[in-house]
Design brief:
alpha+beta; 4 domains; 4-stranded antiparallel β-sheet; 24 helices
């Protein structure tokens, strides 16, 4: 939009008001609209504009500079409010709230402001923007404020009675390093079942994961037992997310109702693929291909599955688009620093990288589809939709993957931004993720987001797990991590009298390998976690296992062919056309491998024989 078009779009009275801002008296103001248009156009393109800019308040100049340099000349009010906390008086008429509309309340009076010379609607005409870019310096880039580690509180105010809730701090990088291998080990043991339709793990499977997670899932029984009318369960979170993540990431696939490791999944379990590369790929695959909409886990926002066009359907936006925007925003976060979630929400709105949740907020609601619809003004604000989606994405997926560390409480009574929505006063929280108060992008997260090229896991140095005490017997020197314990249980027996004693067991080991276990897993654990060099007896045990499990292999299916005489069977075996595809097994029988069946039948015809349709020989 150029300046002439902008001026012509205004009525004559509006143009007069703008001219009066130049201290022109009513008597000296041009009378005709065309003359008023030309007066303003000539003035604003002259050096007079410099004088008017100098007359503006500092807040007005800052706002204009922000719009011309960072917002392409059209003001984004939400972004300005997030950046500066307020908009200079007189920029636009204040918008009446929903509840004041239609009830005879007059609109606020317009305040005179020099901004009226610059803005037409919410935009600055192209010629003015070019001039203003030269007149006004570019504002400093917005930066997210960080919270010092020592400033993280021990408690936050929550519950309906204003009580205190403890704040938990979790190092999720270390947790993911343990949990990834624990979950893959459970899958390797055939203990994880998933839904054929949703691919979500069964309740029993999530419980198995839940009890094996490093330091447990996020919430305890005490956290669950808070004042909430609906008594929804907060957990599981990580136990829910991991099976979905490894399936989307190609580390496991569903066979029947069970998950099985893929070739890539087994390589990750055997440490043939580095941990950080596995996490980075899992994140990227979830970002691009994760089918679950994280908003669905905010189950108190109803109507998400509504189908239909126009006002009937929920019109949820593709989650991949939202995840890409969140990635761009996270890449600008200061790694290694704690960020308060509300400050992050402010920065997200200020950054200019936007995503929408729905094209039809009227289809979404709390409690009641009509009275609690999120279509009403201020019922679908950023914190209700984009904010809750972001909390779910950060807390359930990025934290589970170990990319961010978190400081959080139970969600009860922590947030009040939804209280104005009809019926929502019954809720003690809007989502199970409402208690997420701070997060910190760690080195693993920076690596997965492509912000750094190298990664090194800094883990607490742990003592060796095992000490060899007698032939195939070992002493446990510490409590095994879940994935270590599950592996040892597959290959060794625990003493009933001494729980810290275990012995490698040949029968148990052979059964494990026969069912798909990898001997390399056991070998790696023993060599890495035994305090001294393995004994000759243990090395012989491992070599013997390798021999026993690699000396015989399945050659595939085969068919037995019965001839009407031994001489015919020998003829077929000795023939150059068929002999290379079959074996003589005695008497009148010949065996043919399934993968050679077609070639055998073709050769048989050249010899002068065929098999009848029912394979019956006459």
């Amino acid at each position: 939009m150029n300046l002439l078009e902008a001026l012509n779009n205004e009525n004559s009275d509006e143009l007069q008001k703008r001219i009066r801002l130049l201290d022109v008296s009513a008597r000296d103001c041009p009378r005709r609209k065309d003359d008023r248009v030309e007066y303003l156009r000539s003035y604003l393109l002259s050096t007079g504009l410099n004088f008017q800019i100098a007359r503006m308040t500092e807040a007005e100049r800052t706002m204009v500079a922000e719009v011309v340099h960072n917002q392409s000349g059209c003001a984004d009010q939400a972004r300005l409010l997030a950046r500066y906390g307020s908009i200079p008086t007189g920029y636009l008429q204040e918008q009446s709230g929903y509840w004041s509309q239609g009830y005879g309340q007059s609109k606020p009076k317009r305040v005179k402001s020099l901004l009226g010379l610059i803005f037409y609607g919410r935009c600055i005409p192209a010629e003015l923007r070019v001039r203003l870019i030269k007149l006004l310096p570019k504002p400093e880039q917005d930066r997210v404020m960080v919270t010092g580690s020592d400033a993280l509180p021990a408690t936050v105010e929550g519950n309906r009675d204003g009580g205190e809730l403890p704040v938990y701090r979790r190092n999720m990088e270390l947790a993911a390093h343990q949990d990834l291998y624990t979950v893959l080990r459970l899958i390797d043991q055939g203990r994880i079942s998933v839904s054929e339709k949703t691919h979500v793990a069964s309740a029993a499977s999530m419980k198995k994961i839940f009890v094996e997670l490093y330091e447990g899932d996020f919430f305890s029984e005490d956290d669950e037992d808070q004042d909430d009318v609906y008594k929804d369960k907060l957990s599981p979170i990580r136990a829910y997310a991991w099976p979905l993540i490894v399936q989307t990431g190609g580390l496991a696939k569903r066979t029947g109702s069970k998950l099985q490791l893929s070739i890539k999944g087994r390589k990750v379990l055997q440490r043939k693929i580095p941990f950080e590369d596995a996490i980075a790929e899992l994140y990227q695959r979830w970002r691009d291909k994760g089918k679950l909409d994280e908003l669905r886990r905010v189950n108190r926002i109803k109507g998400q599955t509504r189908r239909g066009r126009g006002s009937k359907g929920s019109q949820l936006t593709p989650q991949g688009e939202r995840r890409n925007v969140l990635e761009l925003q996270l890449q600008s976060a200061p790694a290694g620093e704690w960020i308060q979630v509300d400050e992050w929400f402010r920065y997200m709105q200020s950054s200019g990288e936007k995503f929408e949740i729905t094209g039809n907020p009227w289809a979404l609601y709390l409690v009641d589809a009509e009275y609690g619809s999120l279509g009403y003004a201020e019922f679908h604000d950023f914190s209700i939709l984009q904010g809750r989606y972001t909390l779910a994405y950060l807390f359930e997926y990025l934290a589970t993957l170990g990319m961010i560390d978190v400081a959080y409480s139970a969600p009860h009574g922590v947030r009040s931004d939804y209280h104005g929505i009809w019926g929502a006063d019954e809720y003690a929280y809007l989502s199970r993720y409402d208690g997420l108060g701070w997060f910190r992008l760690n080195v693993l997260g920076a690596f997965a987001l492509g912000m750094v090229d190298e990664y090194r896991l800094e883990t607490p140095k742990m003592p060796p797990l095992l000490r060899s005490i007698d032939e195939l017997k070992f002493l446990l020197l510490r409590v095994p991590e879940p994935h270590e314990r599950m592996l040892l249980e597959q290959y060794a027996t625990i003493s009933k009298t001494h729980k810290t004693h275990l012995r490698l067991d040949t029968v148990r080991s052979l059964l494990t390998i026969e069912q798909g276990g990898a001997l390399a897993d056991l070998t790696g654990l023993l060599r890495q976690q035994t305090e001294s060099k393995l004994t000759v007896e243990v090395e012989d045990f491992l070599y013997d296992l390798k021999t026993r499990t690699t000396s015989i292999r399945d050659g595939g299916g085969a068919r037995i062919i019965e001839c009407n005489s031994e001489s015919l069977a020998r003829l077929i075996v000795e023939s150059g056309e068929t002999g290379k595809y079959c074996l003589y097994v005695g008497g009148n029988r010949v065996v043919v491998a399934e993968n050679s069946w077609r070639n055998f039948r073709n050769g048989l015809r050249k010899v002068g024989y065929v098999l009848s349709a029912d394979s019956t020989l006459v």
